[in-house]
Amino acid sequence: MRAAFWGMAFLALAGCAEIRTPAPASRIPPTLAAGTADPVRLAVDQAAEAFADAGRSLANQPARTARGTAQVELLAAEFARDLRWAPLPNGVRFELRAARTELRAALGTRANADPDAVVRALAATQVALDRNDTRAASEALSPALFEPGGSVTLARLAQPGNLPQTRNATSVAREEVERLQRSRLGGVAGALDPNADAITLSPGLGSVR
C-alpha cells in the first residue's frame, strides 16, 4: 500500500512539474515574451484588454491589432497542446478557436495557415510598425499566410471591424485562467500557482509537500 502511495505521489509531482513549466521560449516571439516569465499568461490578460470593446478601439491601431491577433493565435494553440492548461474547460478552447476563425476572416489569414507561423508574422509586423517601418511590416505579411498579404493585409489590421466572438473568447479565457489559478482542487490546478507548495492527492491519500 505504501509503495502504491509513493508511486502515485511521484506521478503527481512529475505531472505538476510539467504543468508549472511555461511554454518553451522558442515557440513564442521575443516581442510577445519580453518582461515576463509566462508569456501565455500575459497574452490572456492583454488580449482580453485589446478586444474588450470587440475591436472598436483598434481602428487605426494596426500594431495593437497585430499584437492582439498574434496573442489569440498563440492562446488557441497553447491551450490545445500545453498540458499546463489541460484543466481548463473545453469551452475555453472552443471559444478561442472560434475567435481565431473570426480574426482570420477579418484579416484574410489563410484558413490552413500554421498558427505558429501566423504568430511570428504578426509579431514581426508589430515590431516593424512600432518603429514606423511600414515596408517591413508589409513584407512580414507573407501571401503564403495572408490573402493577399502585404499592404492590403496591413490595411485590414488598421480596420479589423467588429469582433464580438473574439471579445467573448478572450474574456472567458481570462476568467477561467484566473479561476484555475485560484483553485487548489486536485493539485493540478494548484500547480499553476508558483506559490503553491502542496500537492493534494485523491481523497484519503493526504498531501505531499
Q: Nutshell version of this structure?
A:
The protein is built from 9 helices and 2 strands, in the order αααααααααββ. By secondary structure, the protein is an all-alpha fold.
What does this structure look like?
- The chain has 209 residues and is mainly α.
- It has one domain.
- Helices cover 59% and strands 2% of the residues.
- It is built from nine helices and two strands; from the N terminus they run αααααααααββ.
- The protein has helices at residues 2-20, 30-33, 39-50, 62-81, 90-107, 115-130, 134-140, 150-158, 164-182, and strands at residues 199-200, 207-208.
- Strands 1-2 form a two-stranded antiparallel sheet.
- A hairpin with a 6-residue loop joins strand 1 and strand 2.
- Helix 3 crosses helix 4.
- The longest helix has 20 residues, at 62-81.
- The chain is globular, with a radius of gyration of 19 Å.
